[in-house]
Design a protein that fits this description.
Blueprint: H1 2-17, H2 37-55, E1 68-73, E2 79-84, E3 90-94, E4 105-107, E5 112-114, E6 121-123, E7 128-130
Antiparallel strand pairs: 1-2, 2-3, 4-5, 5-6, 6-7
């Protein structure tokens, strides 16, 4: 929201005065942002998270202890996240993030499935807690998550 307001203010200045002191800073064609070491570090980190998530092995057993999770491989040779709630109920979700396809990791402190690539977060049932994702996780038996690129 702040970016939209600031953009409108810059556009107004450009229309009325033909210049804005923030024009260069917010110009989408500006040089430098994609040449910075931070840009390359973040890109490399996201790529490593994406690849390492795809290479993780899953377990062939479900979590027994309440409040714990496991990445499990089921009969369709697909990895799922399994979480055993404190009431004993087992929740199984597809852990491929619907945003861009990274593999989610379990945050045991908050009992959430978190995306290491773009920070989407889901509760243990697969409901969205934080974006950029716009699709919840599918539960076991509902099919695979469909990746919806939402930039």
């Amino acid at each position: 929201m702040t970016g939209g307001t600031l953009s409108a203010m810059i556009i107004i200045k450009l229309i009325i005065k033909k210049e804005s002191k923030y024009e260069d800073l917010f110009n989408p064609s500006r040089k430098g942002s994609y040449l910075s070491t931070d840009f390359y570090k973040e890109s490399l980190n996201m790529t490593l998270n994406y690849i390492s998530g795809k290479l993780k092995y899953g377990s062939d057993h479900f979590p027994i202890q309440e409040g714990t999770s496991e990445i499990v491989v089921l009969e369709d040779n697909k990895r799922y996240g399994a979480y055993r709630h404190f009431d004993g109920k087992l929740y199984i979700v597809d852990i491929t993030c619907p945003h861009l396809g990274c593999e989610l990791t379990f945050n045991s402190a908050e009992k959430t499935w978190d995306c290491p690539c773009h920070a989407s977060r889901y509760d243990y049932k697969g409901n969205i807690l934080e974006g950029p994702t716009v699709k919840p996780l599918k539960r076991y038996g509902e099919g695979k998550n469909h990746i919806k690129i939402n930039l």
